[in-house]
Predict the structure of Probable cytosol aminopeptidase.
Amino acid sequence: MTRSPNKLIPAEFSAIPSLAASDAVGVTAVDELGAGALEAIGVLVHSDGDLPDGVPLDRAALGRAGFEAKPGTTLVLAGAEPTLLVVIGAGAVDDLSEAGLRDAAAAFVRAVPKATRIGLRVTTIGTVDATSAARALTEGALLGRYRYDALKATAREPKLATVELLLDGVDAAAASDGIAQGIVTARATAIARDLANTPPSHLTASDLADVATILGGRFGFDVEAFDKQELIEMGCGGLLGVNAGSAEEPRLVVLRYTPAGEPSGHLGLVGKGIMYDSGGISLKPSDPMHLLMKMDMGGAASVLAAFTALRDLGATAAVSGWLLCTDNMPSGSAYKLGDVLTARGGKTVEVKNTDAEGRLVMMDGLVLATEAGVDAIIDIATLTGAALMALGPSTAALFGTSQPLVDRVKAAADATDEPAWQLPLERKYRKQLDSDIADISNLGGASAGAATAGLFLSEFVGDTPWAHLDIAGTMQSDADDSWRSKGATGYGTRILIEVARGFTPVA
Ligand code: BES
Ligand code: MN
Ligand code: ZN
């Protein structure tokens, strides 16, 4: 069949541009930077202690050039040499962290946007362990240069080809291990970004199912997609209700990763996959924010992307995923305010606002996950504007019924520098969701919108330990910022990988 000129994805692997970029770049730990062949060498410079040798200016001269070694700052020292030297601010030695190393690498690659062969020298990793340091530097370098250029005639910047890391005093095997992990986690994050950055008509629910199948084949997990007729037979009234106004079919995509040995546990991941959120009959007013609603599948993207890392990281847990995919459109067949939908499992929901659609698709996914008998569920969803209002664009809202599970998600978020903050599931607010004619309604009151959405979801997880990430704020960034690049951030992908890879049942 001939592809419409207005549809890019899915084709072959090259349709996910970051896969090609990831295959093309080599990151290595070296004993000596190959100065001749490199276009740029970066050196981390702290605001205290001695300057690394090889930096041709002293502190006073660097200061006159405006460089004070603050984190995130860089200064390109162009000389007669063919290789650019870049000093990278890294703050005080005692403050050095994994996140600081990641950000320094990202700042470096952005300082030399045209360079494809680069080397980075780090004279101390402070108290960070060698593997984590190498992993963070790799992630920073690869994610800092991410661009979604698939639909441009010419890419804005060349992709990286070679990244050499010279880490003074660091065990070579540990560094290589960290680099290998960083390549996998950065690739996964970039896949999530590609999916969320792809325009909505290029990536429909059925396209996402096709992409998942391709990724499963390459990265070693099983993919099963359920179409509209099958969803009717399964009683997934939430996904079907939201889909009713759409010309595109919905898809439930189920992912399964099975480890080589006896599983250490079984984790369920559920992702919101609203391919485009118009608001439905409760139509969103047209404002620039709605350009972003192609990213309303960011949760599903991060779950799918996390699966691409599990085999390559040797994950020991069984991991299952449920992606609830449809767009939310107004039309003559759309679901209406006052309609009652029946979730998988039989609970009825009165629709008081068709723009609160995320919770309606998620309820079916959460029920399916509990039915599968997983040891715990983590869901991730671009669920509420209230999460963005409460915590802004860098921190996600975290809720849950199991404090040990919430603690694990928080610890992973701290480690990956994908910040999350726990908010209370305040039971007092539950009555805001009461309905006169159904078991529950999909709309809470005017305030605490992220919490009432979380309370709604909690009704569908039974006794299974559950944590919920509301990523409405963190799904995208207005500007390049540390490991984030402008546009879709792929937020949550690395948290999910971190929690899933060694998952054991929570107490
Ligand atoms: N997808 C939106 C939430 C969102 C808002 C994500 C901004 C990213 C950025 C969600 O489906 C939505 O429309 N939520 C409503 C819920 C309300 C109607 C109860 C909201 O937050 O306004
Ligand atoms: Mn909505
Ligand atoms: Zn939405």
In short: DSSP finds 14 helices and 19 strands in the chain. The first helix runs from residue 17 to 24. The mean pLDDT is 95.
